[in-house]
UniProtKB/TrEMBL annotation, chains A, B:
Name this protein carries in UniProt: NUDIX domain-containing protein
Signal peptide: none
Region (Disordered): 73-96
UniProt cross-references to SUPFAM superfamilies, sorted A to Z: Nudix, Winged helix' DNA-binding domain
Nudix hydrolase domain span: 13-168
Tagged with keyword Phosphoprotein: no
Gene3D superfamilies in the record: Nucleoside Triphosphate Pyrophosphohydrolase, Winged helix-like DNA-binding domain superfamily/Winged helix DNA-binding domain
Keywords: Hydrolase
Keyword Methyltransferase: no
Alphabetical list of InterPro entries matching this protein: NUDIX_hydrolase-like_dom_sf, NUDIX_hydrolase_CS, NUDIX_hydrolase_dom, WH-like_DNA-bd_sf, WH_DNA-bd_sf, WHD_NrtR
Length: 263, 263
DNA sequence: CAAATAGTGTCTGTAAGACACTATGGG
DNA sequence: CCCATAGTGTCTTACAGACACTATTTG
């Protein structure tokens, strides 16, 4: 049966129900460590286990569903989590949420990934600047940031989803300027380098990194300012930069040569 | 509502029905042109319009659903298209279908993309070696290969899906050896170059391409043989190669420097 | 002052692209 | 014989990484 014939004679009640959810791999950097937002599950199955935040898709686009879930779990956008109406139109002028990068990661739909029914989950990947612990807010009390190397044994197939998200994030830092999505609106080259070292888990040569970043057109642009103070343990006041207008890095910033080209 | 609370009190009948389909962007190269597999729609909506092959997801993984749709539309795997049982277990030892590369492309789920109900479609991208026109087979009579630059005004949001698939394919040729998925099991460097020019739509310098391909470890390996005859308009008998064991090209084969790093 | 960081200079190996050239075989 | 293609040589430019070095600021 192809799509055409399916749509001709389609009757929803003839087929087993399928639920569509979104799950979000939200990454941020806290204290120099790459962290992911997790929630504690209260109910079966996987009660007590940690899981990626996510939920049912309503009358909205998939992107909107992912943004809504992220907002609810981080407690960032004041948009009420109680409203049951169509959220397609508006959530209030979000604060830090506007600086969050959100993209689709992949879709996970193996039969049996949820023991109770067929659930197809569209996973999203989010890059966020350092955010406050979400416990402050209302109903997001069960969510918290966990260093990615401590995020194991997640519910459902979320270990795999997280692994896919991390690999995507590492690859994206190579050829896009998305590292700036982890920083504030103004940042130093050193802060940018810390993003790379946190995500890649590898030390980078400070001098070469500095020159490389400035040589890629459109990656960063100078604000003309410097920080008010030098580093905590000394050093000159570094210059401040903004994200540039490039959407692709050319030439790319390749990860340290893992001779391990996968065979 | 997050996933945890959704799963606690979930009742499928409380929510509007959602259908999940797979659609396949199947690409091949015919007569030096990049072509996509399309089907003619017989029923409303979009009757008479062309669309990507696809269909309803059954009790199977999403990957299996995509492979099954592709098999049915190309008429390649003898596996019956009439069987209604669980296909998770087996399709017969497929012929050319084993050489097809299949990967998930993305998921499209805007409300209203199908005028009758909420349909979330998981799109797949397939790279196939030159295949016979599928009209030969049974129920695949409505499917045919169309040069991608003539594939316009497709049904649903398939123009967008196709565009995303093409961009993915072009990018993948840069850093993976997937160009070999478009060729037969043995190929010449010239044939491989034709894959690149067809997909990228750009001429490549034959000499530099030749040296570059051979210099990337694991991209191709020599069979020690040459073709039986030279080119149609003369020339030496080129050597034959097989796909190597690399899964990533290092260093990558970058597209001709579009100074247009996207801004 | 000591230590740490920002930022620059320089050198080396590798890779990409431009161009030229030889060799081979079909029409 | 003509011409297109296979395959190689060489040169120039660009870039990545290693290393060294100076300057600046905090404790």
């Amino acid at each position: 049966m192809d799509e055409a014939s399916f749509l001709e004679g389609y009757d929803p009640r003839k087929y087993p129900a399928v639920a569509v959810t979104v799950d979000v791999v939200a990454l941020t950097i806290r204290d120099g460590r790459l962290c992911v937002l997790l929630v504690e599950r209260g109910a079966q199955p996987f009660a007590g286990r940690r899981a990626l935040p996510g939920g049912f898709v309503r009358e909205e686009t998939l992107d909107q569903a992912a943004l809504r879930e992220l907002a609810e779990e981080t407690g960032l956008t004041p948009g009420g989590s109680s409203a049951e109406e169509d959220t397609a139109g508006g959530h209030e002028a979000g604060s830090e949420l506007d600086r969050v990068h959100l993209e689709q990661l992949g879709t996970y739909g193996d039969p049996g990934r949820d023991p109770r029914m067929r659930v197809v989950s569209v996973a999203y990947l989010a890059f966020a600047p350092s955010l406050p612990e979400p416990t402050a807010g209302s109903d997001a009390a069960r969510a918290y940031w966990v260093p990615v190397d401590e995020a194991k044994d997640l519910a459902f197939d979320h270990d795999q989803v997280l692994a896919d998200g991390l690999e995507r994030a590492r690859a994206k830092l190579e050829y896009t300027p998305l590292a700036t999505a982890f920083t504030g609106p103004e940042f130093t080259i050193g802060e940018l380098r810390q993003v790379y070292t946190a995500v890649w888990g590898e030390e980078l040569h400070a001098g070469n990194f500095h020159r490389k970043v400035l040589s890629v057109p459109g990656f960063v642009e100078s604000t003309g300012e410097t920080t008010a103070r030098g580093g905590e343990r000394g050093g000159p006041k570094p210059k401040l930069y903004r994200a540039g207008d490039a959407r692709l890095l050319h030439p790319a910033l390749l990860r340290p040569t893992r001779e391990d080209r996968v065979r």
